[in-house]
Amino acid sequence: MKCRKLSLFICIVAALAMCSAVQAVEVGPIPTGGITATASSAFPGYPVMSVVDGTGLSGDYPDEVHDCLISSMWNNNGDPVANEWFKVDLGASYFLETLRVWNGNEAGAGGFWGIDQVDIYYSNDVADPGEPGVGGGWTPLGTAGDQHFDPGTGTPDYGPPQEIALGGITARWIGLDINSGIGNQSWIVLSELQFLEVAGPARVLDPAADTIVLGEAGHTFTVSIANADAPTEAVTVTLGTDPTGIIDVPAEVIIPAGELSSDPVSVSTVALGTTTLTATAAGYHDGTSQYDVPTPSLELAPAEQTMILGEAGHTFTVSIANALAPAGDVTVSLGTDPTGIIDVPAEVIIPAGELSSDPVSVSSVALGTTTLTATAAGYRKDTSDYNVLIGYPIPTAGIIGTASSTASGYSVMCVVDGTGLSGVYPNEVH
């Protein structure tokens, strides 16, 4: 029997599957609990989530059938079909073998309202890659224009579904760029999508990403074996990043013979930015993880303040985020727009070896609203909002209202006790 190609995972804790030592693996549906879906549009009453949560399905895998109730399917809102897309977040990375499709299946309509030509995309990004097929976060499955969904039957026992081979890709996101309908080019219906994974002990990347402050030490990852016994010979895994120059990792890591994991591998930062670390080995699926080396930034706390004109005792601090404590003093420039509402010093110092300034006093000068901005070379700026008011509202607890008359069910007190108000003074809404 031809050996199934397995998968190599990497992301702080990673996984590798060795074809020569494959255990028996099973293919089964990914649990629906962690799956979410979005679409370009949805007609009210025909939810997007019904396509991925099992609504309308009955029976046990692999013999499920789908009903013909239009309310258990997704329906777009009548825009031209060529403008529509559908996107699924599996909630984690999986080895995907098969996509099972139950197309539109309205009673008596056969496949008239179903999807015809569709381009399928996938992504293993942690962040949402956006609209399917748009931008660089997606990888096409096959050739654009070649994939078609089979029509539904229009019967209450629609099955078996169409099965589309995914080839053992490692993915978190599946995107459908819908280009045409079977019988209508404005309204389309989709009943269910089901995703079959290669079951294995390390099918989920944990964690799928890491954030490292520039210059921070102590971060490591390991490469581990999944879906296989410990190898009889050492496994050499090649490491690389795209783009390069953000983090530094060794060119190779070894999983020793008889072991299921490498020793911890150190990773260090080189420059600011985001990069994807990829682990490859001949005969294995690639594994990836994302690393972010964020831009150092300033943080003003609190993010907003309300002051009474002439009131004393208000302060704020300026802190450094996404960076190590500086080797020398950091001079932070302060300014307000518009000016003349509050009074703050022109500068504040964050001392060497510290991540925050001492508390800085702020006083009110005039009524109004202003924005305080903190800037420093090499750091992303931050802002906070200030409201200077003439006074605070009187507490409602002691207030009583009366009126010349009141209709039944309409209380006089609701006018003075805050009924219907939400939000915080002075920004309440009714």
Task: Tell me briefly what this model is.
0% of the residues lie in helices and 38% in strands. With 430 residues, it is mainly beta.
List keywords for this structure.
430 residues; mainly beta; eight-stranded antiparallel beta sheet; 31 strands; 38% strand
Detailed description of the structure:
This protein has 430 residues and is mostly beta strands. It contains no helices and 31 strands. The strands form nine sheets. Strands 2, 3, 6, 7, 8, 9, 10 and 11 form an eight-stranded antiparallel sheet that branches. The protein is flat. The model is unreliable at 1-25 and 200-206 (pLDDT under 50).
Structural class: mainly beta
CA gyration radius, whole angstroms: 29 Å
Average pLDDT for all residues: 87
**Shape call:** flat
Could you list the spans in which at least 5 consecutive residues all have pLDDT below 50?
1-25, 200-206
Report the sheet-strand fraction: 35-45%
Put simply, the count of helices is 0
| Portion in helices | under 10%
Query: Mind summarizing the main beta sheet?
Result: 8 strands, antiparallel
